[in-house]
Amino acid sequence: MSPKHPICTKTFTLNNDQEIPAVGLGTWLGSTSPSPSQATELHASLLKALSNGYHLIDTAQYYGIESIIGSAILASGIPRSEITVVTKFWGEWHHDPASALEKSLSSLGLGYIDIFLMHWPNAIRVEKDGSETNLGIDESPTFLETWKVMEGLVGPRCRGIGVSNFTQKTLQALIDGGAKILPCVNQVELHAFNPNLKLVPWSKQRGIHTMSWSTLGGFYPGVENEIFTHSLFKSIAAAHDCAVSVVSLSWAVQRGITIIPKSNLDARVAENIRLVDLSEDEMEKMNNAHKTIKQIHLVDWITAILGKRADGTQLVMGWTKEDFGWEDKEGNWLP
Ligand code: NAP
């Protein structure tokens, strides 16, 4: 961390007038049931982050840590009103988001949630024997049906509602389906190799704020994370006397996107909130990295949620990439 670079205090205003910090802390520990030592470590690192300028925490029911998030926020001594808490519910709750909200409220123990997200557009049906079935895009509850129930949750205990892993296609389906409230946030995979150059301005025009996950390329076994090693990012970092992680994070925030980098290490947490101003030329080079270096969809490496049809078509929790709106019929990437 270079003390030359100040803590980023930038905020964005959402379509429901909520103010959201540009930089928050991600909390996915890579497992749905973290070990006691991971939980202790997370609690300590949350306290450190909160005392070092982070006012936004991103979590999810799926991460199995909402209670740790809640207890760390309470222990921090920072007024609740100064912290934005984002959490998400998983596909098994699409038939009943009101109960999902109660579950998060109870686990977090913070009185209210700032932003409650539908984690993925896909629904899951839990069968009588406990097994799970991924539902197809047109099967009930569809994401539109779920969204319409979510609209009724907005109030003092759920200040804002949003979505995650939506595209122009699925967002447009909400609009065409008569949504009365548009998502205040859409949280998507976004980094230099999957920059979502069209989705971000398209969403902004409609008042939907983009939040980026895996802005640092995440940690996916089998994927070389060139965001830390490629000469493009290293040379921009050298020019600004900042850590290489800061290049990707600054680029996203400069595009009007909220970032939620995750680290267990205090030094990195401190580094990831000290952003720099990139020049137009540097922004352009970053915007083109998906063409000049490589294009990658990290979802392809999240093996726990992948499947295949008999004909070999790749499925992500039962949906094709065309269903999501990531690709067209011919398999061309839709940015
Ligand atoms: P990320 O923040 O892009 O990257 C995290 C990885 O980068 C970790 O391995 C971390 O290691 C390392 N790292 C962080 N800061 C660093 C630095 N300054 N220098 C070097 N390495 C650094 O990836 P992510 O955790 O996948 O995404 C961020 C957050 O987005 C998640 O935590 C979660 O809250 C959210 N998310 C949402 C979805 C969704 O479907 N909505 C999906 C994935 C993630 P150490 O911890 O060892 O430092």
UniProtKB/TrEMBL annotation:
Residues 23-288 form the NADP-dependent oxidoreductase domain. GO terms for molecular function: oxidoreductase activity, acting on the CH-OH group of donors, NAD or NADP as acceptor. InterPro entries: AKR, Aldo/ket_reductase_CS, NAD(P)_OxRdtase_dom_sf, NADP_OxRdtase_dom. Keywords: NADP, Oxidoreductase. Substrate binds at residue 119. The record marks 88 as: Lowers pKa of active site Tyr. SUPFAM superfamilies: NAD(P)-linked oxidoreductase. The active site is at 63 (proton donor). The keyword Magnesium does not apply. Belongs to the aldo/keto reductase family. This is Putative aldo-keto reductase.
